[in-house]
Amino acid sequence: QVQLVESGGGLVPPGGSLRLSCAASGSIFSINAMGWYRQAPGKQRELVAVIISGAGTNYADFVKGRFTISRDNHKNAVYLQMNSLNVEDTAIYYCNVHIYDGNRRGEYWGQGTQVTVSS
Questions:
Q1: pLDDT digits (tens, 9 = 90+) for 21-41
Q2: pLDDT tens digits, residue range 81-95?
Q3: Which residues of 22-39 are buried (b: 16+ CB within 10 A; e: fewer)?
């Protein structure tokens, strides 16, 4: 079993910043990818950013230059630094992790954390 715990969401004014955190625990042999998705009301879940082991990072076009994804391998954690937030960034943000537990590969989702950008 693998558990993901997210934190860091909240309410910020336009132009503000937030840092999201996600820590994985449990049966983890290796982590192949860690990333963040978001889902706004009435919209589909979409990729925000991802770190792929051995392959680097990818960002959605709408966050390039504003958001930065990073990873702490010792803590099995992934972070999303979000700067210059605008109202269109309002959504529930989900951590997503691809893990190999020694026997099989699995994909896991965090519980989601609300980010609201409003004046």
A1: 999 999 999 999 999 999 999
A2: 999 999 999 999 999
A3: bbbeeeeeebebbbbbbe
